[in-house]
Amino acid sequence: ACGTTDTGGSAGGDEGGADCNFKIAAMGALSGPNASIVVPSVDGAQLALDQWDGGDCEVTLERFDTEGDPAKATPVATQIAGDESFIGVIGGAFSGETRATKTIYQDGGIPMISQSATATDLTQDDPVEVFHRLVPYDDYQGAAIAKYLLDEVGATKVFVVDNSEAYGEPLADRVEETLGDSMVARDKTEVGQTDFAPTISKMETAEPDAIMYGGYIAEAAPLLKQIRDAGIDAPFIGGDGLYGADFGNAVGEAGEGAVVMCPCAPIEGDSTFAADFEEAYGGAPGAYAAEGFDAMTIFLKALEDGARTRAEVQEFVSGYTGDGLSKSIAFDENGDVPQDQVSYWAYKNEGGTLTPEVEVKPEG
Amino acid sequence: MSEQTHAESSTDTDVVLEDTSNHDQIAIETSGEVGEVLLELDHVTLRFGGVVALNDVNFQIRRGEILGLIGPNGAGKTTAFNAMTGVYTPTEGAIRFKGKEIAGIKPHTINHLGIARTFQNIRLFPEMSAMENVMVGCDARHKTSVVGVLFRTYRVRPSEEELPESGIRRSLAKVFGISRHTLEERAGRRRSMELLRFVGIADRAHELARNLPYGYQRRLEIARALATEPELICLDEPAAGFNPAEKEDLMGLIRRIRDLGHTVLVIEHDMKLVLGVTDRIVVLEFGQKIAEGSPEEVARNPKVIAAYLGEPDDAA
Amino acid sequence: MDFDALISGLDRHTLDGITRGSIYALVALGYTMVYGVMKLINFAHSEVFMVGTWTVLGVYTVLGVTAGAGIGMVIAATLLALLAAMLASAGTALAVERIAYRPLRKKGAPPLIFLITGIGCSLVLVEIFGQVLRVVFGRPFGRVTVNIPSVLETKTVFTIPGLDLAVSNTRILIIVGAIVMMLALDTFVNKSRLGRGVRAVAQDADTASLMGVNRERVIMLVFVLGGAMAGVAALLYTVQYDITKFDIGFIIGLKAFTAAVLGGIGNLRGALVGGLFLGIVEVYASAIWDSSWTNVYAFVVLVVILMFRPTGLLGESLGKARA
Amino acid sequence: MLLEMKDAVLSYGKIEALHGISVQVKEGEVVSLIGANGAGKTSTMRALSGVRGLSAGSVTFNGEDVTKLRADQRLRKGLVLCPEGRGIFPGMTVTENLNMGAYTRKDKAAIEEDYDRVFDLFPRLLERKKQIAGTMSGGEQQMLAIGRALMSRPKLLMLDEPSMGLAPMLIQQIFDIITEISQQGTTILVVEQNAKQALTRSDRAYVLETGNIVKTGTGAELLDDPSVREAYLGVA
Amino acid sequence: MSQITDAYRGLKLGERWDHAPKPVRWFVMLLVVAFAFYLPYLNILPFAYIRTDLTSSGSDWASVLFLIVVYMIVAVGLNVVIGLAGLLDLGYVGFYALGAYSIALFGSTNSPVVEAMQSKFGLSEEWAVPFVVCIPIAITMSLIAGVFLGAPTLRLRGDYLAIVTLGFGEIIRITARNLDGVTNGAAGITQVPVPPGPESDGRAFFNTIDAERWYWLALAILILIIFLARRLENSRVGRAWLAIREDEDAASVMGVAGFKFKLWAFAIGATLGGLAGLLFGSKQQYVEPNAFMVQLSFLFVAMVVIGGSGNIYGALTGAFLLTYLPERFRDLVDWRPFAFGVALVLVMILRPQGLVPSRRRAREFDDRREEAKEAAADV
Ligand SMILES: Nc1ncnc2c1ncn2[C@@H]1O[C@H](COP(=O)(O)OP(=O)(O)OP(=O)(O)O)[C@@H](O)[C@H]1O
Ligand SMILES: Nc1ncnc2c1ncn2[C@@H]1O[C@H](COP(=O)(O)OP(=O)(O)OP(=O)(O)O)[C@@H](O)[C@H]1O
Ligand SMILES: CC(C)C[C@H](N)C(=O)O
Ligand SMILES: [Mg+2]
Ligand SMILES: [Mg+2]
């Protein structure tokens, strides 16, 4: 609601007077079961802000919890878009909420940089001007997983399972596409499912030499356990939906050796970023922390560059080039980073932690 | 519940059993001749698994009479009611109402054809007021359904007495008519109140049915059944739980019901009442008709005495 | 669509279905008993089950047992976990009854109020494990999936000759366990005096009290028994699936309730039949199509069955008074 | 004094149904309670049996204050009500219903005897042992309710309109039964509309009018009382 | 004069309202409505504290108001089904989803259905069914769904119906998720059309930012709906529902066509649910299956019950509180669901008749409470 919410203290009061007093919003699942794949990235952004010497500028990061739910994200987005003191958005973290809110941000003319929303259609099917992201889209991730399966595992009979969701299903579709004849069977499951007996018995019939799962941790853990319980020991690989510390915890011993693909390069344990992050948040940087850091950095650079309005910031972001922590960044007209800039890493679950195994470069 | 917000409620207080109602408003129009066959059970058999509740039963009810249906416990009297009102479908045989076959028809349709009843185990709408219970009965004859209620679409030209008194509304009503819903609602309220008076429980019209004493509940059931303007009304043990004085009153009530134009079928175990009020009696035993005739004939029938009445010392 | 997959693996799918269904059935008992007596859907029952699974985890953690422990230890730990889960679940059920339902009963609240209160309780219990305990104790509590050590390792005990169907120890435990518990409960309710009291209260609480039945005791008993059955289900569940989660009860609860209705709510044997039936239908459907359509088929089957048998497969055990 | 109710007040919400009535029943007596519709007879029975609590007054049974006891606790002490409108368990069979009557009893052999006694009294019940009670005719249900009450071997049996819905022959029989069990040593309190029968058979009676006791005396006295005759016996 | 005030003092608020002269009642109602329209601009302290955008990370006040009104429409509809007709519907979200999906499927250029129509009839890529045409489509679709679901299942009693309706809600959601070729599956449909209106600042009149316009639109619709729904209660129809709720068999024998009236209740409920879904989808301009989980159905039922089922104003209150409070207390972050659960239980225990029960229900409840209390006085 433009012009209606500028009193009652909503905008922190004094934005009219000060020259460079802005807010940046981070929107994502900050609570709920998926928080562990989102919170580190927002922490990363906060770290970038804390380390910034803004001179005259005073910038704050406001966190908006959407629980990753598109329906809950829209009022949040309307609020952000309607409050002129916000000049940028970090997020959405998930593809679904991003899809639901990007028109709102477009209407509000406020630039967004997503640290982790990977669904292909966000930029490829109906791109909006304000949307940018620091991660490659899932067409590549699917290809990367397929490539890993073919080259590293040498699989010829892959069993592909997905969770029927906006993220897992297209990812699995893409894997299937790239694998071609090397896929033996495909099955679909549901979010919230815990008994995978029908899928397992299909696996027993198919006798795959590798298994791919498109989905999130909650279902991956019981699925993998039941696979191992049934005595199937084919290698298991999933996408970035499993890229969180919780995966190892949940799956236990059965998860030993499971592989997680992520469009995120490993952060060296002895890098300054890792050290700073550790100091600030008491743990190694988690999922997409570097991307969150980079997103914030771009916004801050825009302010340094003299951008003071949303339009100026938007212009700056779209034209931005520079090296980030995660990759070297330049957005194309759809808001994507050049796909040759990205690399995928296969992480292997060893004793509960994900350790980088090998880099995979998919062909587009 | 002492809230008497509605105007009608406080009109009569102590006159309970006396009929102060306006009979013009509650009498029904009947379409046939007194004495013609109104309802006919034609070789009706009804079985529940092994139990034969009705076994080849034949009898007729004639318009304008008060027919008694008696018999030992479990003889099949209530079952006959259930078959006549659509609750059960006979296994064999036909039931004809005004010449039309009604076996197997839904209860509410049968009600619309003109049969209403009361229940042996009282079945009122316990959380509705007495008045509302009767209104539900009146609604059976009303036409307005959801669309009419929502949009007041169906409008009728009001008669002089239906027109509002005051100026603007009166002229508006003259031009646009009054919705059928409004008129029906008004008529229903008036009629319900009259009926409550008629059965003698108007003093507690706005109380929830569940809070009424047993006797009131019985009478309320009768009022509710009458509200549906039935040509045939079936009373299942209306005097159960009444003391002799009350039974006496009930007899009067039953006669007055007939005088309104209804035909009455009554199940009752109280012989004094049955003999005193009915024109004719049908006796069932073990699902079979064992006798039929005038009260005097039946009372003298040895079969009936053996099966039902017992030694004729003090049956009341 | 792949009917061949169903036919060729019919034995296997049936076994899977029975396994899944046994757990539904055990949980369904809790719904059915409470419903039978109080005409109320105890929405918090799914969480009674959830508490049971956490209790199993707790016992294993305290005992320090892990996969590969000695046979004696395994048996002891499993029995102890069973007992603890039954106690904890029964306790939770009783607590819900006492804290939430009882005050409502005293005030004579209508059934829908119980329903919403149940939903509230369910949310509270879920959040106790998802949030409150996490804040107090940290992991493993929280809104994530948690690993439970597979103390009882899955081993094939025998292979059904001719069918080439391997039957594992865990399956035997689940199926036999569920059926034994069911039979015990059924016998108790139908044969014992207290059981008769339960049925009497179910049909007419006032008259039951005139027969000397203590209504409050019966209600407590029903919650405790239903809870204990959910506890058994919880143990069997963890034996088979080795995980738990703060909101794990939701879907199982929903399915169990469906099973109870399918079998005829208020009817104990109905819960067993409904549970097994639902489990088998689900697994068959997933075999023919895939698991993403499972619920659609399950509910369609439910509707079709209720069309022909409006009070479930076995009907309500409480007869209806007639006109 | 086996049962004594003192100054009992019972209300339903805002309606007061009993305005402080006192009733006494001595061991071995047959006492009846008569009165018009809504006089409060059923309310009195409810209060005595404990289905309803009193807002004032007390109930003592067998010398013990039972005012604060629940219905099931009173039953265990031998105070048994056969409620108005039957109140059978509609989903149970005839046998199971009878069984419920013996719910608190442990004496297996005696229970078996009582079965036979009830079936003797009501052969219809024996015929229909397996029938679901809810599907029985009104009168059959009434027999079942009485039979079931007998199964609890009460010290004091309270019957609320036991003859309601029964055929004339059976009414006779019911009253014979009342006399018989009274002779066997059970004390009886009965509410009846069939005032003539009730008064004839009872030692003492109370007349209730709108929540107050207006008359009391022996059965014979009240039978002769002109006002009672007019109001309750239908004889002017 | 003093006599009048004396007479007033003894009365409860509701009764006072009944006794107030008609002009007074009209005036008060007008004020309430005017205030409701003014709400998005409410900025006068301390009243402005009710706004949801005061705290950091708060959400847009007008958007929240819009959502509240949409849920109020839902609650009014569900109140007809649950509160008046006494049918427990645990799958109401299905109708809500249908409303949202119908407008998306026919009105969005992104929808496979529209794409199929485009190619079949050789229409331009910009073409889609116009918004105004989508409304009757959405309403008809939900109405048909209501009848379609109701016709075979309404014969079921009580809780059997509950589980079947719950299943219906799930079937709608899962079908929407799985039928990729028709609904875009889990990805959902974007570019859902908005009501037509003059453009300003290069944006459509009904755009995603100016939420107060949506709020006013929804509010106007809500007021109309309340006006109509009120008519049902004290009518032949309302009585029929009540009678069915009390004793269906007896009602039938008294001439109440039970099935017909139940079906009507379902159809009315379905239509209102669909309408609410339509507003929601259109405002979001995006529809996806996950927005329609079963839990939402429970929330809807909770709204009706918490407010006091059977009373429109109760349902409105319930919808308001259950939507508003979680938004107002966003600061609680991780504690929100817990707080919500505790609040739900507490409210029910403390006020089991609902917050604003209908007078009938309040009376019923008083009686029952007396009964329960007295029977248990001795424990
Ligand atoms: N649904 C049913 N299932 C089985 N038996 C039934 C059913 N309904 C009635 N019966 C049996 O049919 C017989 C006739 O019952 P009905 O209720 O018609 O008797 P009645 O003549 O009304 O007796 P009463 O005077 O005691 O009310 C009874 O023996 C009863 O047990
Ligand atoms: N559950 C109830 N709630 C409210 N009022 C009640 C309730 N039950 C009875 N009453 C009222 O209490 C008074 C006494 O009723 P009660 O049933 O004791 O009378 P009764 O003498 O048994 O009459 P009947 O001969 O009709 O059985 C009546 O005015 C009745 O309306
Ligand atoms: C945080 C990530 C797991 C999010 C995921 N890539 C998505 O698009 O939904
Ligand atoms: Mg009968
Ligand atoms: Mg009485």
UniProtKB/TrEMBL annotation, chain B:
GO cellular component, one term: plasma membrane
Keyword match Nucleus: no
Residue ranges of domain ABC transporter in the record: 39-311
Alphabetized PROSITE patterns for the sequence: ABC_TRANSPORTER_2
InterPro entries: AAA+_ATPase, ABC_AA/LPS_Transport, ABC_transporter-like_ATP-bd, BCA_ABC_TP_C, P-loop_NTPase
Keywords linked to the UniProt accession: ATP-binding, Nucleotide-binding, Transport
Protein name: ABC transporter ATP-binding protein
Source organism of the structure: Nocardioides zhouii
From TrEMBL, chain C:
One annotated GO molecular function: L-phenylalanine transmembrane transporter activity
Localization per Swiss-Prot or TrEMBL: Cell membrane
Transmembrane segments: 23-41, 48-67, 73-96, 108-130, 172-189, 218-240, 295-315
CC terms in the record's Gene Ontology section: plasma membrane
GO biological process: D-alanine transmembrane transport; L-alanine transport; L-isoleucine import across plasma membrane
Membrane topology (UniProt): Multi-pass membrane protein
Keyword Cell membrane: yes
Homology family: Belongs to the binding-protein-dependent transport system permease family. LivHM subfamily.
Protein name: Branched-chain amino acid ABC transporter permease
Lineage start: Bacteria, Bacillati, Actinomycetota, Actinomycetes, Propionibacteriales
Automatic annotation (TrEMBL), chain D:
Record domain ABC transporter: where: 3-235
Pfam families reported for this sequence: ABC_tran
Coiled-coil regions, chain positions: none
KW Nucleotide-binding (keyword) present: yes
Domain of life (superkingdom): Bacteria
InterPro entries: AAA+_ATPase, ABC_branched_ATPase_LivF/BraG, ABC_transporter-like_ATP-bd, ABC_transporter-like_CS, BCAA_Transport_ATP-bd_LivF, P-loop_NTPase
MF GO annotations: ATP binding; ATP hydrolysis activity; branched-chain amino acid transmembrane transporter activity
Name of protein: ABC transporter ATP-binding protein
Lineage: Bacteria, Bacillati, Actinomycetota, Actinomycetes, Propionibacteriales
Automatic annotation (TrEMBL), chain E:
GO cellular component terms given for this protein: plasma membrane
Pfam annotation, one family: BPD_transp_2
Keywords: Cell membrane, Membrane, Transmembrane, Transmembrane helix
Location in or out of the cell: Cell membrane
InterPro entries named among the record's database cross-references: ABC_transp_permease (IPR001851), LivM-like (IPR043428)
Transmembrane segments: 26-49, 61-82, 89-107, 127-151, 214-232, 263-280, 292-315, 335-351
Example of a GO MF term: branched-chain amino acid transmembrane transporter activity
Membrane topology, record value: Multi-pass membrane protein
PANTHER family: HIGH-AFFINITY BRANCHED-CHAIN AMINO ACID TRANSPORT PROTEIN BRAE (PTHR30482:SF10), HIGH-AFFINITY BRANCHED-CHAIN AMINO ACID TRANSPORT SYSTEM PERMEASE (PTHR30482)
UniProt-recorded name of the protein: Branched-chain amino acid ABC transporter permease
